[in-house]
Write a structure and sequence with these properties.
heterotrimer, A mainly alpha (285), B mainly alpha (317), C alpha/beta (236), A: 285 residues, mainly alpha, two-stranded antiparallel ribbon, C: 236 residues, alpha/beta, four-stranded antiparallel beta sheet, 37% helix, globular
Chain lengths: 285, 317, 236
């Protein structure tokens, strides 16, 4: 039982890591990034390719994540520029369509160019035992990475000036402008950061099992679901929602099987949107 | 400002139907191209449906494939399992799609969901559909799909009769669209698309009209979805996947232009041409679709019909 | 005294409707000037245009001798013109202190000193400094908005209907604070519906109606003007 719970929490942390980028871009940029999963894939594939060239896994991963970030930056400064000219719903719609198109471009390219490249990161010891429970090393590492990433993110948002600026724009873009803050530059920073977090989530997937080019859309879908259930503007919400869904996923898979579990999660997602569109944790950022 | 002549909807309808009817003559008897043209007609009909639901009432239904597929699977499975005639099961499929689409619309409007959330909910619905079909293997044969050649009505078996039968259905869809837009509902749609809040305050029953648009659109999706199933020869989750139907419709509508009668047709023709051009690229065609979407959304947002209207100084319907 | 802020034949439109149709005004350094007029006269639109939040259809706006129309609103803040809108636009999930600190963004290093200044001016904000802005009362939110605006050491403060929705007690209090700021030499441009307060506090005033300037002059004279008294002060 406990093993399932731990498994669920770890999976959930990965989901949260994946989803937090969507929350950041939506809350700050007012854009729903449907290409998000592609950044995860790019991070993972880049890492795999670099490892294939002989680079040490840690270095390759770091570069892979940075690569994902670079592409996020490019996306923000090029194709999203027309979307930023609008506000509110227009921007949302335009951003959604543009990122949808972009996801097809990236997915199509990767599918044709690197159809067989996959990232796997084997660890020296497959598992270890603590207090009578056997834990997969991969799970522990993933949990540590995800928790560290979130801790850094929260520290950044709460304690640094830039972080406060980010929160201020998310809470009131007009108000931020009145304080002399240029939202455009901060947006670029956040989009880049989000892409890197997605890239990290992709690399982490390589620790769990393996990551291939076809997983892009699946990642986007799951990230979307977690972000929406948690409250698409709330970072706390995304973290909690991810872990919750990870736990539900782990237990449901064990008892009723993978197929039914997915259905349950999807119906939960749809239900949450319909019953409480602002998400479970709409209150705080 | 120069006076804008306008072409009436009825004239356009007749002109377009006649033109499409003459297309087979230009294909030189090639069965291959006839099939492409027939499929183009099917996708034009899908686009008309999306035009009604999204173009006119801003309901971002990213579940076109799912609605069409729901109808298709209901019809095919019922025909196979209960040995009923497809002519009986197709209407059932249509009703299923219409009810589903109408329900999604109703709940979304009542909960006050914005465009994006409707998009997300329908996206999730698409995923639910895909998973249901994959999982209920005993009924649907999962990923492998079902062959429909044996049970298809003769008129949908292929060749010229199928082309004209489907053209007839498309024409009926046009007529329905035309009548709908000229009725009081059409004016309501316009008001809702312009400013929903203002429309509500002006006394328009926004809920009723949005649900109407969604139901009519979904019914059309169901009809074409079922026809697609029998003409295509087989059904599978992939046939009705987001990447197979929704994306094509999106590009077609962006190409042709929203909220017009002939937009889906011009868009469909353009898309088919582009698709053929891109065929040698193999699987890279997905990339082309993506680039098209991005470029269209950024630069060419109003579509070919709007551009032609401006150039020719004629209001095209 | 030189003209610090000037608007010349400014025209602003909202969705093809002209809201401000050729307004000219000037504010000298250290002056406080009121813009009064009924709802819909174009006061807020004019202020938003000066603040760089709306574009001009015609005319120009100059500050310190140079044209500023066309600049982005955050650049204008950095130049020293701060706009405090009627809607306040606070950060609801951040504390009073955090809101104020962000107001000092253009001169963040000097925020400690400015913070002391603002909290001295508004003791109520000092009391509630850890409270979340969204939970403050209307009057306190207004004070916070003004305080936040002051944090960046502005040269010109644009106050849009600061007394809206405030109990009379709060209105008197913030006008006391305005008087203090005036004494310190801050240039203030004030849009108000509360005409007696506005005219009592400022040096000069413009009366805006239907997007145009109907009257202008020394505030004291306008107070005595019969038409003003009839239309805005409900007398006679």
């Amino acid at each position: 039982m406990l093993a399932i719970l731990i498994d669920g929490i770890v999976q959930g942390l990965q989901l949260s890591l994946m989803a937090v980028g969507i929350t950041l871009i939506f809350g700050l940029g007012g854009v729903l990034n449907l290409a998000h999963g592609q950044f995860a894939v790019i991070g993972g594939i880049a890492t795999a390719l670099l490892m294939g060239e002989g680079l040490h896994p840690l270095l390759a991963s770091a570069l892979g994540v940075l690569g994902a970030g670079a592409l996020g930056l490019a996306m923000d400064r090029t194709v999203l520029v027309p979307a930023y000219r609008y506000q509110g719903e227009e921007r949302l719609l335009l951003g959604l369509l543009i990122t949808l198109g972009l996801s097809f471009v990236v997915n199509g390219f990767l599918d044709v160019r690197y159809p067989t490249v996959a990232l796997t990161l084997p660890l020296p010891t497959p598992s270890f035992t603590v207090g009578g429970i056997t834990i997969r090393t991969a799970s522990a590492v993933v949990a540590l990475i995800a928790l560290a990433a979130f801790a850094l993110l929260f520290a950044f948002l709460k304690a640094t000036l830039l972080g406060k600026v980010v929160r201020s724009i998310m809470q009131n873009e007009v108000g931020a402008g009145l304080c002399g803050i240029n939202p455009g530059r901060i947006r670029t920073l956040i989009v880049t950061l989000s892409a890197m977090m997605a890239g990290l989530a992709g690399v982490v997937q390589g620790l769990f099992s393996s990551l291939g080019t076809e997983l892009g859309n699946e990642f986007t879908s799951f990230a979307l679901i977690v972000a929406v259930i948690g409250g698409v503007r709330s970072i706390n919400g995304t973290l909690v929602a991810g872990v919750l869904l990870g736990i539900i996923n782990a237990f449901a898979s064990y008892y009723v099987g993978a197929y039914l579990t997915l259905l349950i999660l999807l119906v939960t997602a749809a239900g949450t949107i319909l019953v409480r569109p602002q998400g479970l944790f709409a209150f705080r950022t | 400002m120069s006076a804008n002549r306008s072409i009436s909807g009825r004239s356009a309808l007749i002109a377009v139907t006649l033109t499409l009817a003459l297309v087979p003559l230009a294909l030189g008897g090639s069965a291959h191209y006839l099939r492409i043209a027939t499929l183009a007609l099917i996708f034009m009909a899908y686009t008309v449906a999306f035009n009604i639901v999204f173009g006119h009432t801003r309901q971002l239904f990213l579940c076109l494939g799912a609605l069409a597929g729901a109808s298709a699977y209901f019809s095919v499975v019922l025909t196979m399992k209960l040995a009923l005639s497809p002519w009986l099961t197709m209407p059932i499929g249509i009703v299923v799609a219409a009810l589903l689409g109408g329900a999604i619309s109703y709940v979304s409007v009542r909960r006050g969901l914005g465009v994006i959330f409707v998009g997300i909910v329908t996206l999730v619905f698409s995923m639910i559909f895909q998973n249901l079909v994959l999982g209920l293997r005993d009924w649907t044969n999962g990923e492998t799909g079902l062959e429909t050649k044996a049970i298809a009505p003769a008129v949908l078996a292929g060749g010229l009769p199928s082309y004209y039968a489907i053209l007839a259905v498309l024409a009926v869809a046009f007529v329905a669209y035309h009548l709908l837009m000229r009725s009081r509902a059409g004016t309501a749609f316009q008001a809702i698309a312009d400013d929903e809040l203002a429309a509500e305050l002006a006394g328009i029953d926004v809920t009723a009209y949005k649900v109407l648009a969604a139901t009519v659109g979904s019914a059309l999706l169901g009809a074409i979805g079922a026809i697609h199933a029998y003409y295509g020869g087989f059904i599978s989750p992939t046939v009705y996947a987001l990447g197979s139907i929704d994306i094509v419709v999106l590009v077609t509508l962006l190409l042709g232009g929203m909220r017009t009668l002939i937009g889906p047709v011009l868009g469909g023709i353009l898309f088919t041409l582009i698709d053929e051009l891109v065929r040698p690229l193999g699987r890279l065609n997905v990339m082309v679709y993506g680039v098209l979407i991005v470029v269209l959304v950024i630069t060419f947002r109003h579509g070919v019909v709007a551009m032609l209207s401006k150039r020719l100084k004629i209001r095209l319907p | 005294m030189s003209i610090l802020l000037g608007a010349d034949a400014v025209e602003v439109a909202y969705a093809d409707i002209s809201v401000v149709r050729g307004v000219s005004l000037e504010v000298r350094a250290g002056e406080s000037v009121a813009v009064i007029g009924p709802n819909g006269a174009g006061k807020t639109t004019l202020f938003k245009a000066i603040a760089g939040m709306l574009g001009l259809r015609g005319g120009s706006i100059s500050y310190g001798g140079a044209r500023i129309d066309g600049r982005r609103h955050y650049e204008i803040v950095q130049q020293g013109i701060v706009y405090v809108p009627a809607e306040r636009e606070l950060f609801p999930h951040m504390s009073v202190l955090e809101n104020l600190e962000l107001g000092a963004y253009p001169c963040y290093g000097a925020r400690a000193e400015r913070l002391k200044f603002v909290l001295d001016l508004f003791p109520r904000l000092l009391e509630r400094r850890r409270q979340l802005a969204g939970t403050l009362s209307g009057g306190e939110q207004q004070m916070l908005a003004i305080g936040r605006g002051l944090m960046s050491r502005p040269k010109v403060l644009l106050l849009d209907e600061p007394s809206t929705g405030l109990a009379p007690f709060f209105v008197s209090e913030i006008y006391r604070q305005f008087a203090q700021l005036k004494r310190e030499g801050l240039t203030i441009l004030l849009a108000e519906q509360q005409v007696p307060h506005a005219l009592g506090f400022t040096d000069r005033a413009y009366v805006l109606e239907n997007g145009r300037v109907r009257l202008s002059g020394a505030s004291r004279e306008l107070l005595g003007n019969e038409e003003i008294q009839r239309t805005y002060l409900g007398m006679g």
